[in-house]
Structure formats: C-alpha cells, structure tokens
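A student in our group prepared the protein record below, which I am reviewing. Here is the record exactly as it was handed to me.
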Amino acid sequence: LFKIGIQHMLARSLPGLYRFISSPSRFQSFPLRATGVCSCMKRKMVKIGTHSGTFHCDEALGVFMLKQTAQFADGEVVRSRDPEVLKDMDVVIDVGGTYDPATHRYDHHQREFAEVFGHGFTCSKLSSAGLVYRHFGKEVISKLMNIPMDHPDMEAIYLQLYKAFIESVDAADNGVNPYDIAAPPKYLNNTTLQARVARLNPRWNEAYTDETLFQGFLKAVELTGKEFTEMVSDVVNSWLPGRGYVKEAIEQRFSVDPSGQIMRLNHYCPWKDHMYNLEKEMGVEKPILYCLYEDEREKKWRIQAVSVGPGSFENRRSMPAAWRGVRDDALSQLSGIPGCVFVHAGGFIGGNATYEGALDMARKSLVLD
C-alpha cells in the first residue's frame, strides 16, 4: 500500500521522474525508501529570528503577525543575538541593527533609525511590531478576517488598527509618554499589555534559562496575538459598520435640514469619533452641530450637541439656555414643540417622544441662544 501510495503521489506531482523509476528494472536499481522521498520533497524550513534573553511586547506581537502570513506561517522561531546564527534566518525582527525590507530585517534599535508609521501618525518611532505591521498588516488582516486584501475598506481598517492597537505598542516600546506632562502618575497600572507580557519572563528568583525564556516567549506570542485578533475583530465587525452608518448620515444631512448642520443616524452606534474623522475626509465645510438618533430602549428620540472635538465637554453649539433643566409639559409649553421629554442642564442633550419633535428642537436650537 505504501509503495502504491508513493507511486500515485509521484505520478501526479513529478510525472517525468515517476516514469523513470517506475520501470521494473530501474525501480530495482534505485530503491525508493520513504525517508528518501520525504527528505527530497520537503520544503525548506523557514526560520524567524529574534533576540534571546528578556522578551518584550513588540517582538512577541511581531512574531505573531509574521506567522499569519503565507511566507512565514510555518516558520520556526529562533531566539539569538549571535550574528552568525541570525544571518541564516529568513526574517529577523527586533535585533541585528538593520532595517531592510528587501532582506526581511526589521530592527529599530540602530542610532539612525527614525521611521514613523506616517498617515498622520507621528508621535512615536516604530517598534519591531510597527515595522512588521507596516509591511504585512494588510495581509494579516486579510488572513484573520477572511477578507480580500483589495477590499474597498481595507485601508480604513489598516489605519484604524494602527491607531487602536499598534501605535500604543510602538510608543510604549520607545518610551513615549501618553500625556504632555512630566508629573509622575498618581497610581500604578500593571494591567497593560506590555506589563502582562513582562510578567511572562522568569521572575528574579526563578530559573533564567533559554528553555524557560523560550516557553515564556511562546506564551507572550499567544497573549499578544489573542488581544490583537480581538481588536481586529472589533474594528471589522463593530467599528467599520458604525463608520458606514455615520458616513451615510453625513451624506444625507441636507435631506434632514437645508442647513446641513443636523444629521440623523438611522442606526444608533458610537458616532462621535467617526463624525470628526469623516468631516475631514469628506471635506465638510459647515460643521455639524446636532445629531439625532433613537434611544433603542425607550423608543424616544435624542438630540445631542456635537462637542468641539474628541474628549471635549465644550459644545460647538449648545441647546438654548432657556430650555436647560426643564422637562416634559413645561418644556413643551416653553419651546412650543409637542412631546418634549427633557433638556439637560448642561445643554448638550435633550429628548422628544418623536423624530419630528426632536428635529424641531434641533432646528430651533440653530437659531436660539
């Protein structure tokens, strides 16, 4: 059975060679052993090199991403700082002192290294994770989410994943403070991805051997990969559909009100960050001031003032001062709009029983101080 199986395999993949060895006289003269066939047909093992010793978040994530690619999926991980060992690797990350995509060398520690991701992201130089993502990110996304690399939304997904995940890995590895102040933190946060990867290294009073480090590194690859994959899923399955709904609302804003400064969400989703980004991308000239959407639990409509920017509590235009803190019938009588539910004392949100009522509240808010 084994001999028949080998002959069938060779007949399909190497017909010329099969004809040569399958004649009785030649087959006896050139005995075909299983080990010989496997060794001659086995593909050369691809090797992924990174540094030995204490490991970090960036190269663990970089290795995970490399192993999602067609070229390095079956790669054997080799940890070493020996140049003689690294020179034979098919790809090397976070060690070696060279950044050269042509030879798949992705280190960022050299003095002259100044690469940033670009596309408006300039707060940090790239780490090894950022370098791998720059060159292989779209292929990794395609593999993890089973979407084609030429998908029309691929560029948006690629950039959002850098913003939502990879940039923080780059910045932490390069020592970039997320805040513009030098004051020490008021409390410790040991739950970051970087901190959890660091704890996978041997403790000071545990065996610090190549084997314990290697096993810890494999756990770090798994940990960073799991969290990265979760973020990819979140971007593709939540962020991207939300972006689509907000884009639709911006495109249709003039059908809501001729001013173009009121938009209606036909499906509620987290909308603010999308709106700020899409206003720039779409060249919106008159800023959007109010967003209307239905509260899915109460089935009533909300009118929300747009803040001046992400994270700001200052509104581009608040709801009228006379309405703030007033509710129900009193608010309906004051505003002349039926179905009013409330306007917050801060003037940033209000409610009405119907869409038509919420739209009237937004329109009057455009002209009333």
